[in-house]
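JOB MANIFEST
job_type = single_chain_structure
chain_count = 1
residues = 80
[input]
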Amino acid sequence: MMLGFFGGFLAGAFGLGGGVIFNPILLTLGMPPKVASATGSYLICFSKISSCLIYWQAGQYIWDYTGWIALWSVIGSFAS
């Protein structure tokens, strides 16, 4: 839990992607690379959800872009 909190804080404070912080720490802790990558992606999911909620509450959510990105994300996930 502390890794998620501090990793999310550092990623937000410095404008870095969460994987830049989470993956090296998890690898240093001895996790296999595939597990570290999957765990880092899982942890990043929560920071993305909270960011979306904050933009939505502030009325700054751009729905046209959201739909466009969602469409291509779904297509890309099925294509891979």
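[summary]
The mean pLDDT is 82.
The chain has one domain: 2-79.
exit_status = 0
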